[in-house]
Amino acid sequence: MASQRKNRSLFIDHEAASALEFLKAGLLYPVTSLMNKAEVSEVLSNSTINKKIFPFPFILAPSGKRNEAVLQDIQSKETLNLVCNGKIFGTLCVDEVFEIDPKERLRHIYGTDDEMHPGVRQTSKRLGKLAVYGEYTLAHDVPNLHRNEIKNAIELLNAKNITAIMMAANPLHRAHEKLIRQSLENSDLTVIFLLKPYETADLQYNLRYEALKYFIDNYLPKNRVLIVPLESNYIFAGINEIIIDAIVAKNYGCTKLTIGQNHAGLGMYYDSNTNKSILDRVTDIGIHISVASEYVYCNVCKTLVSTNTCPHGQHHHISYHAESILELLKLGIVPPAVLVRKEISALLLSKMFKNRFKNLEKMYYNLLPIGGLLESHTEEEFYKELMNLYQTTSLT
Predict the structure, then answer these.
(1) Among 24, 47, 34, which residue's Cα sits nearest to residue 284?
(2) Distance CA 200, CA 49 (A)
(3) Domain that holds residue 88
(4) Interhelix angle for 205-219 vs 174-185, to 10°?
(5) Structural domain ending residue among the three candidates 90, 116, 138
(6) What predicted TM-score, i.e. pTM, was given to this entire model?
(7) Angle 178-262-229 (CA atoms, 0-180°, nearest 5)?
(8) Would 273 be classed as within a structural domain?
(9) 13 with 48, same domain?
(10) Is 80:3 a contact under the CB 8 Å cutoff?
């Protein structure tokens, strides 16, 4: 520690720290280290490193005048402290410092450098003009990031087909449930990577995790489903999201990645008189990518259906738009059970609006059927019983 105090410091944020942990844990292979100027040129020219696909240069180019001053004055083989949130995160032995074009980097990540793009706007604030290359070490043990948990589950089940699903579940709805069930039909083990962004989410990670775990524990063969938190930092953003998802899933031991049909990262484009998507670029990663159908509720079929198989038009379909369902929850409105399972809605609302009712027992007694005994009830139970009233059909 004494030698670390003598080192100059490079200040990095949580997203950079998370990306460096991913790299050190081996989850970004074929990338195994920060890239130097020659490797950056290779990736920029053909989106490969060591003849294996990687969509953009993996570099460390933190913003800020303090960082710029240090990097402009750096000595070869000088060791820098990497400081995150006021604490030493690791050290880096500098081999090379080189200039980058921030706008070019933004275009490679997001497909645009337009500041109106929220990702561009956020990343441009944290991106400097100087990149630093060298070997780095962490001040703590290399994080396992749940790799052993997945490995143990694979060995226990002797799993050959392992499906990965990247999911925000913000909130968990019926179409999510259908996607998970479908993946279990065709795999021995399903790993749900639950996105855990550093930015404040509408529903905090712990609440989304609790809802997802409730569904798995009560309605699925839970030994065949794992929930793994995934720090959704900047490398997962933009037009290359599916490629990075596939690389990470492959390095976790998964054999297949399932994505939704309306995934923004699919990005159709036109090339050599042929319609293509991002999937045409990931054939050599070594993981199968399947695109799941879009699911809707059809009021003629009276069930959840795929838009590929339902003969009825969109005017008969109820879509599962997470943003709109979340808006209902944020307003304190119980979503219809056709959108969100009533137990999930009850769980979420009871946590989002704690102690909402002034006299819960009186509400329970006045509105709901009771067994004649005076019992204490929770707000979660109240929402479930209230949903049962919504579903009473004899008077509707």
Answers:
(1) 47
(2) 34
(3) 2-138
(4) 50
(5) 138
(6) 0.89
(7) 65
(8) yes
(9) yes
(10) no
| Judgement on whether residues 151 and 111 belong to the same structural domain of the protein | no
The one-letter amino acid code at 117 reads H
What is the DSSP annotation of 79-107? Answer: EEEEEETTEEEEEEEEEEEEE--HHHHHH
Structure tokens at 189: 């083990």
Give the lowest-confidence range in 23-37, 207-221, 295-309, 353-367.
353-367
SS3 69: helix
Count of domains for the chain: 3
- The strand order across the sheet containing 162-167 reads 225-230, 189-195, 162-167, 256-260, 288-292
Question: How far is residue 323's CA from residue 338's CA, in Å, rounded to a whole number?
Answer: 16
Q: Are residues 14 and 65 in the same domain?
A: yes
- Determine how many CB atoms are found less than 10 A away from the CB of residue 390: 12
Q: Is 181 strand, coil or helix?
A: helix
Q: Which of 159, 192, 199, 198 is nearest to 176 (CA)?
A: 192
Residues 6 or more apart whose CB falls under 8 angstroms from that of 110 comprise: 117, 119, 120, 123, 237, 238, 239
Checking if the pLDDT of 395 tops 90, the result is no
Q: CA 22, CA 7: separation in Å to the nearest integer?
A: 25
Of 280, 295, 310, the domain-final residue: 295
